[in-house]
Write a structure and sequence with these properties.
Blueprint lengths: L1 H10 L3 H9 L8 H18 L17 H11 L8 H11 L2
Helix pairs in contact: 1-2, 1-3, 3-4
Length: 98
């Protein structure tokens, strides 16, 4: 299910509706990998797709920047991550430390 959301949330013009529906998911019912994927899509949406979607119409669930971000950071901590583009690295740091 999350992979379908991932494809739709990052590319669809109905992103606001899809993010609203994603926000209605009971966060306690999500697995760690689901949270990780949703935050990953959040990053893709806000950094790459956001310009194509009216961001004022998009509301992210409150747990997106808590539980989902923490799950994403735990996964990144288990990986060897190198970001060579200084601008992208600065944007990622600002999102992670928000």
């Amino acid at each position: 299910m999350i992979n379908c959301f991932q494809a739709l949330l990052s590319t669809s013009t109905c992103a606001a509706t899809l993010w609203r529906l994603a926000g209605e998911i009971n966060v306690g019912s999500l697995k760690e990998i689901d949270l990780w994927n949703l935050f990953h899509v959040h990053l893709i949406h806000t950094e790459l797709v956001g310009g194509d979607v009216h961001m004022d119409a998009v509301t992210f669930a409150p747990w997106m920047m808590r539980e989902a971000r923490d799950a994403w950071m735990r996964q990144v901590g288990r990986c060897s991550l190198t970001v060579s583009n200084p601008e992208l690295k600065a944007r990622l740091v600002s999102v992670i430390s928000a």
